[in-house]
Amino acid sequence: AQTVTQSQPEMSVQEAETVTLSCTYDTSESDYYLFWYKQPPSRQMILVIRQEAYKQQNATENRFSVNFQKAAKSFSLKISDSQLGDAAMYFCAYRSASGNKLVFGAGTILRVKS
Amino acid sequence: NAGVTQTPKFRILKIGQSMTLQCTQDMNHNYMYWYRQDPGMGLKLIYYSVGAGITDKGEVPNGYNVSRSTTEDFPLRLELAAPSQTSVYFCATLLWLNTEAFFGQGTRLTVV
Protein backbone atom coordinates (compact mmCIF):
# COMPACT_ATOMS: atom_id res chain seq x y z
CA ALA A 1 0.00 0.00 0.00
CA GLN A 2 1.13 3.48 -0.74
CA THR A 3 2.06 5.72 2.15
CA VAL A 4 2.83 9.40 2.39
CA THR A 5 5.06 10.80 5.14
CA GLN A 6 5.36 14.39 6.24
CA SER A 7 8.07 14.47 8.86
CA GLN A 8 7.56 18.08 9.97
CA PRO A 9 4.49 18.45 12.20
CA GLU A 10 5.02 22.19 12.40
CA MET A 11 7.10 24.85 10.65
CA SER A 12 7.53 28.58 11.11
CA VAL A 13 8.66 31.21 8.64
CA GLN A 14 9.13 34.94 8.77
CA GLU A 15 6.97 36.98 6.44
CA ALA A 16 8.68 37.49 3.04
CA GLU A 17 11.07 34.59 3.69
CA THR A 18 11.18 31.18 2.01
CA VAL A 19 10.16 27.90 3.58
CA THR A 20 10.29 24.31 2.37
CA LEU A 21 7.88 21.60 3.49
CA SER A 22 8.99 17.99 3.13
CA CYS A 23 7.11 14.99 1.83
CA THR A 24 8.23 11.48 1.05
CA TYR A 25 6.15 8.63 -0.27
CA ASP A 26 6.42 4.92 -0.71
CA THR A 27 5.22 3.23 -3.85
CA SER A 28 6.15 0.52 -6.29
CA GLU A 29 4.31 2.25 -9.10
CA SER A 30 6.09 4.14 -11.85
CA ASP A 31 3.19 6.34 -12.91
CA TYR A 32 1.40 8.45 -10.36
CA TYR A 33 0.37 11.94 -9.34
CA LEU A 34 1.39 14.08 -6.40
CA PHE A 35 -0.43 17.01 -4.87
CA TRP A 36 -0.04 19.65 -2.20
CA TYR A 37 -3.22 20.86 -0.54
CA LYS A 38 -3.65 23.78 1.83
CA GLN A 39 -6.18 23.75 4.66
CA PRO A 40 -6.68 27.14 6.33
CA PRO A 41 -8.62 27.48 9.60
CA SER A 42 -11.84 27.57 7.58
CA ARG A 43 -11.25 23.81 6.97
CA GLN A 44 -11.63 24.22 3.24
CA MET A 45 -9.18 22.08 1.24
CA ILE A 46 -7.45 24.05 -1.52
CA LEU A 47 -5.19 22.60 -4.20
CA VAL A 48 -1.84 24.36 -4.20
CA ILE A 49 0.10 22.47 -6.84
CA ARG A 50 0.26 19.12 -8.60
CA GLN A 51 2.98 17.08 -10.27
CA GLU A 52 2.78 14.22 -12.74
CA ALA A 53 5.45 11.61 -12.10
CA TYR A 54 6.24 11.23 -15.80
CA LYS A 55 7.21 14.89 -16.03
CA GLN A 56 10.80 15.66 -15.12
CA GLN A 57 10.19 19.37 -14.87
CA ASN A 58 9.21 20.59 -11.43
CA ALA A 59 5.79 22.22 -11.22
CA THR A 60 5.49 25.88 -10.26
CA GLU A 61 2.50 28.05 -9.43
CA ASN A 62 3.44 31.64 -8.71
CA ARG A 63 5.19 31.65 -5.30
CA PHE A 64 4.81 27.88 -4.92
CA SER A 65 7.17 25.37 -6.45
CA VAL A 66 8.08 21.75 -5.87
CA ASN A 67 11.28 19.76 -5.84
CA PHE A 68 10.31 16.38 -7.22
CA GLN A 69 12.95 13.70 -6.82
CA LYS A 70 11.45 10.53 -8.28
CA ALA A 71 14.31 8.21 -7.43
CA ALA A 72 14.34 9.40 -3.84
CA LYS A 73 10.51 9.43 -3.71
CA SER A 74 10.59 12.95 -2.40
CA PHE A 75 8.19 15.80 -3.15
CA SER A 76 8.91 18.98 -1.22
CA LEU A 77 7.00 22.25 -1.45
CA LYS A 78 8.81 25.57 -1.49
CA ILE A 79 6.92 28.74 -0.63
CA SER A 80 8.73 31.92 -1.59
CA ASP A 81 7.99 35.41 -0.26
CA SER A 82 5.78 33.94 2.47
CA GLN A 83 2.63 35.85 3.30
CA LEU A 84 0.41 35.85 6.37
CA GLY A 85 -2.29 34.22 4.28
CA ASP A 86 -0.04 31.22 3.72
CA ALA A 87 -0.51 30.15 7.33
CA ALA A 88 -2.39 26.85 7.21
CA MET A 89 -2.05 23.10 7.42
CA TYR A 90 -0.41 21.69 4.30
CA PHE A 91 -1.03 18.16 3.10
CA CYS A 92 0.94 16.13 0.63
CA ALA A 93 -1.15 13.61 -1.33
CA TYR A 94 -0.47 10.71 -3.68
CA ARG A 95 -2.54 8.98 -6.29
CA SER A 96 -1.45 6.05 -8.41
CA ALA A 97 -2.23 6.19 -12.11
CA SER A 98 -3.63 2.67 -11.89
CA GLY A 99 -5.33 2.86 -8.51
CA ASN A 100 -8.32 4.63 -7.13
CA LYS A 101 -7.19 5.80 -3.72
CA LEU A 102 -6.09 9.32 -2.92
CA VAL A 103 -3.70 9.03 0.04
CA PHE A 104 -2.75 11.93 2.30
CA GLY A 105 0.13 12.58 4.64
CA ALA A 106 -0.36 13.67 8.25
CA GLY A 107 0.09 17.34 7.41
CA THR A 108 2.43 20.17 8.37
CA ILE A 109 1.19 23.24 10.20
CA LEU A 110 2.81 26.35 8.76
CA ARG A 111 2.96 29.47 10.90
CA VAL A 112 3.93 32.79 9.35
CA LYS A 113 5.41 35.44 11.63
CA SER A 114 5.04 39.15 10.92
CA ASN B 1 -22.86 25.14 -9.50
CA ALA B 2 -22.71 24.01 -5.87
CA GLY B 3 -19.78 21.56 -6.20
CA VAL B 4 -19.65 19.20 -3.23
CA THR B 5 -22.26 19.69 -0.52
CA GLN B 6 -22.07 18.03 2.88
CA THR B 7 -24.81 18.03 5.45
CA PRO B 8 -25.00 18.59 8.33
CA LYS B 9 -22.11 20.92 9.15
CA PHE B 10 -22.20 20.08 12.85
CA ARG B 11 -23.75 17.29 14.87
CA ILE B 12 -23.62 15.97 18.40
CA LEU B 13 -24.53 12.32 18.85
CA LYS B 14 -24.98 10.23 21.92
CA ILE B 15 -23.12 6.94 22.20
CA GLY B 16 -25.03 4.20 20.41
CA GLN B 17 -27.07 6.53 18.20
CA SER B 18 -26.94 6.29 14.43
CA MET B 19 -26.81 8.91 11.74
CA THR B 20 -26.09 9.47 8.07
CA LEU B 21 -23.69 12.07 6.76
CA GLN B 22 -24.84 13.26 3.38
CA CYS B 23 -22.60 14.09 0.44
CA THR B 24 -23.93 15.34 -2.88
CA GLN B 25 -22.02 16.53 -5.91
CA ASP B 26 -23.24 18.15 -9.10
CA MET B 27 -20.02 17.84 -11.11
CA ASN B 28 -20.75 14.40 -12.56
CA HIS B 29 -17.56 13.02 -11.04
CA ASN B 30 -17.19 9.28 -10.86
CA TYR B 31 -14.81 9.10 -7.92
CA MET B 32 -16.03 9.92 -4.44
CA TYR B 33 -14.28 9.58 -1.08
CA TRP B 34 -14.98 9.84 2.61
CA TYR B 35 -12.17 10.91 4.95
CA ARG B 36 -11.99 11.61 8.64
CA GLN B 37 -9.65 14.15 10.15
CA ASP B 38 -8.91 13.91 13.84
CA PRO B 39 -7.69 17.09 15.61
CA GLY B 40 -4.27 18.15 14.33
CA MET B 41 -3.99 15.06 12.19
CA GLY B 42 -4.13 14.12 8.54
CA LEU B 43 -6.93 12.69 6.46
CA LYS B 44 -7.66 9.01 6.76
CA LEU B 45 -9.64 7.28 4.05
CA ILE B 46 -12.80 5.57 5.28
CA TYR B 47 -14.51 4.44 2.07
CA TYR B 48 -14.43 5.33 -1.56
CA SER B 49 -16.41 4.73 -4.73
CA VAL B 50 -15.39 4.70 -8.38
CA GLY B 51 -18.93 4.89 -9.69
CA ALA B 52 -22.56 4.19 -8.97
CA GLY B 53 -23.00 0.75 -7.42
CA ILE B 54 -19.30 0.34 -6.59
CA THR B 55 -17.79 0.98 -3.18
CA ASP B 56 -14.62 -0.15 -1.44
CA LYS B 57 -12.99 0.11 1.96
CA GLY B 58 -10.26 2.55 2.81
CA GLU B 59 -7.86 2.30 5.75
CA VAL B 60 -10.36 2.94 8.59
CA PRO B 61 -13.76 1.49 7.53
CA ASN B 62 -14.81 -0.12 10.82
CA GLY B 63 -17.97 1.36 12.27
CA TYR B 64 -19.07 2.90 8.97
CA ASN B 65 -21.08 1.93 5.92
CA VAL B 66 -21.62 3.57 2.56
CA SER B 67 -23.76 3.21 -0.51
CA ARG B 68 -23.60 4.72 -3.99
CA SER B 69 -26.92 4.33 -5.75
CA THR B 70 -26.42 7.40 -7.95
CA THR B 71 -23.46 9.32 -9.33
CA GLU B 72 -24.43 12.36 -7.26
CA ASP B 73 -24.84 10.91 -3.78
CA PHE B 74 -22.45 9.09 -1.47
CA PRO B 75 -23.86 8.92 2.06
CA LEU B 76 -21.82 7.70 5.03
CA ARG B 77 -23.69 5.79 7.73
CA LEU B 78 -22.68 5.43 11.38
CA GLU B 79 -24.75 2.68 12.98
CA LEU B 80 -23.59 2.68 16.61
CA ALA B 81 -21.78 5.90 17.35
CA ALA B 82 -18.72 5.67 19.60
CA PRO B 83 -16.55 8.43 21.11
CA SER B 84 -13.70 7.29 18.86
CA GLN B 85 -15.74 8.51 15.91
CA THR B 86 -15.56 12.09 17.08
CA SER B 87 -13.88 13.79 14.14
CA VAL B 88 -14.33 16.05 11.17
CA TYR B 89 -15.56 14.19 8.12
CA PHE B 90 -14.80 15.27 4.59
CA CYS B 91 -16.33 14.13 1.37
CA ALA B 92 -14.28 14.57 -1.80
CA THR B 93 -14.78 13.94 -5.49
CA LEU B 94 -12.60 13.91 -8.53
CA LEU B 95 -13.13 13.42 -12.21
CA TRP B 96 -10.06 11.58 -13.35
CA LEU B 97 -6.65 10.48 -12.21
CA ASN B 98 -4.60 13.64 -12.46
CA THR B 99 -7.31 16.11 -11.67
CA GLU B 100 -7.66 17.87 -8.38
CA ALA B 101 -10.02 16.61 -5.74
CA PHE B 102 -12.91 18.83 -4.73
CA PHE B 103 -13.87 18.76 -1.08
CA GLY B 104 -17.00 19.51 0.83
CA GLN B 105 -16.86 21.89 3.78
CA GLY B 106 -16.73 19.06 6.28
CA THR B 107 -19.00 17.78 9.03
CA ARG B 108 -17.85 18.17 12.61
CA LEU B 109 -19.20 15.23 14.58
CA THR B 110 -18.98 14.88 18.34
CA VAL B 111 -20.02 11.66 20.07
CA VAL B 112 -20.69 12.00 23.79
Task: Characterise the protein shown here.
- The complex is a heterodimer of chains A (114) and B (112).
- Chain A has 114 residues and is mainly β.
- Helices cover 0% and strands 54% of the residues of chain A.
- Chain A is globular and about 45 Å long.
- In chain A, 35% of the residues are buried.
- Chain B is an all-beta fold and 112 residues long.
- Chain B is 0% helix and 50% strand.
- Chain A binds chain B through residues 6, 33, 35, 37, 43-45, 47, 50, 52, 91, 93, 95, 97, 100-107, 109, and chain B through 31, 33, 35, 40-45, 48, 50, 56, 58, 88, 90, 92, 94, 97-98, 100-101, 103, 105-106.
Strand content of chain B: over 45%
Q: Secondary-structure element sequence of chain A?
A: EEEEEEEEEEEE
The radius of gyration of chain A is 14 Å
What is the SS-derived class of chain B? mainly beta
As a percent range, the share of helical residues of chain B equals: under 10%
SSE arrangement:
The complex is a heterodimer of chains A (114) and B (112).
Chain A: E1 3-5, E2 10-14, E3 19-21, E4 24-26, E5 32-39, E6 46-52, E7 60-61, E8 64-69, E9 74-79, E10 88-96, E11 102-104, E12 108-113
Chain B: E1 4-7, E2 10-13, E3 19-25, E4 31-37, E5 43-51, E6 54-57, E7 64-66, E8 76-78, E9 87-94, E10 102-103, E11 107-111
Parallel strand pairs in B: 2-11
Antiparallel strand pairs in B: 1-3, 3-8, 4-5, 4-9, 5-6, 7-8, 9-10, 9-11
